[in-house]
Amino acid sequence: MAAAKPIWTYVAAFCAAASLAGCGPSNHPATPSTPAPPPGAGFRSADCNGVTDADITKAAGSSMFTKTVVSDAGCFWQENTVLGTFGQGMGISTWWYRGSDMDTERTLEQRAGRTLTELSIDGNKGFKAFDANACSIYVAKGSDVITWSIQTMNPAMLPDLCTVTGQLAELSQERVN
Amino acid sequence: MRWRVNPVAVVAVIAVVAVAGCSQTVGGAARRAQSGVPDPTRSYGYVDDRCGLLVDSSIQQAIGADHIVRPYSGAVCQYVLARGSGMVDVTFAWYETGSLDRERALATQRGATITEKVVERHQAFLARRDTTGAACSATAAAGTGVLSWWVQYRSQHNGDPCKDAEKLLTATLQSDM
Q: What is the tally of structural domains in chain B?
């Protein structure tokens, strides 16, 4: 059996690996399960996380956005100067994640190549992620997360993008935190 | 008589022993299992450029749209679709630690008309609420949390967006990854 030797070699290697990785002492100590947050520990409910069309116009410095989505997940104000089908995604959005891990979004933003900065609004921790054409702000409370985001092909026509979403995130926190 | 040992069988036995022997080692935080879902440990999170396990072309096809863009991706995904001369808005939400009861309470409080459903063996409800168009969400308890598809016929006040929302929910719950 010419093949016997290599296979036994694999078996030996597998046993060694299994005893090292699988059967060795666990380096993840059992964490005590955290009790579920009491009801109401997340954000309060308001359409568009408490922000109005007038707030959007004020933060953006112009009325170049129109509200096109009001769902239980959140809202979207589309940029009026839609250039082709690609431009249909440009605008300002807010979403409310009712039971989510902010680190999942952190990883996605890092993977998208954006710069990340930690922040805190109204006592809740979060971060912002930005590049030349977008700025998103994430804030967590209990197991909830609220995001404010702007994406545009016309950053020159707008104030600093993180200033826009920063204002909206603060207004929103004042109303639903 | 010489013993003829099948090396593949030996590897299999060792693998079984290794797996069984190490099965007590569990890492990570404890999470409350949902009662009554057929897939209590499954995640429906954003992975491989898919939201709710569906690629964009599947969503476009389900809606019967000519074009689709996805401006926002993560635990919440947002789509803008063009269908004929009209626009269709779609959002997907995956709340990994969310609950169907919280979603139903929120939809009810915001004035939606609720219809209880069972979709692919998952407890679910439809919530019809017209805001910036005729709109409906289809929400189900699934995996560790809750997932929801929302469909809006933008600026329109006829048609049945619940049918499309339920179609997307069914497609997600039927998906084999």
A: 1
Can you tell me whether residue A116 is helix, strand or coil? strand
pLDDT per position in chain B (177 positions), as tens? 445 555 554 444 444 444 444 455 555 555 555 557 888 888 899 999 999 999 999 999 999 999 999 999 999 999 999 999 999 999 999 999 999 999 999 999 999 999 999 999 999 999 999 999 999 999 999 999 999 999 999 999 999 999 999 999 999 999 865
Strands A74-79 and A91-98, bridge-based pairing:
antiparallel
Q: How many domains, chain A? A: 1
In a domain, B5, yes or no: no
Residue A148's domain comprises 49-176
Name A115's bridge partners: A130
Report yes or no on B43 lying in a domain.
Answer: no
Cβ distance B71 to A93 less than 8 Å, yes or no, reads: yes
Task: Give ipTM to 2 decimals.
Answer: 0.79
Instruction: Enter the pTM of the model.
Output: 0.79
List, in sequence order, every residue forming a beta bridge with A91; answer none if it has no partner.
A78, A151
Inspect the interface and report whether the beta carbons of B69 and A34 lie closer than 8 Å.
no
Whether B166 maps to a domain, the answer reads: yes
Question: Element (H or E) spanning A126, and its range?
Answer: strand A124-131
Instruction: Report yes or no on A13 lying in a domain.
Output: no
Helix axis angle for A4-17 and B7-21, nearest 10°, is: 0
> Chain B, 126-165: which have a CB under 8 Å from a chain A CB?
127, 129, 131-132, 135, 137, 145-146, 148, 150, 152, 154
Token pair 């993840």: residue? A28
Within the 91-130 window of chain A, which residues sit less than 8 Å (CB to CB) from chain B?
A: 91, 93, 95, 97-101, 104-105, 108
CATH code of the domain in which B109 resides: 2.60.120
**B1: in domain:** no
Find which of B14, B87, B132, B164 to mutate to test the A interface (most A CBs within 10 Å of its CB).
Answer: B132
Q: Closest Cα of chain A to B67: distance in Å?
A: 8
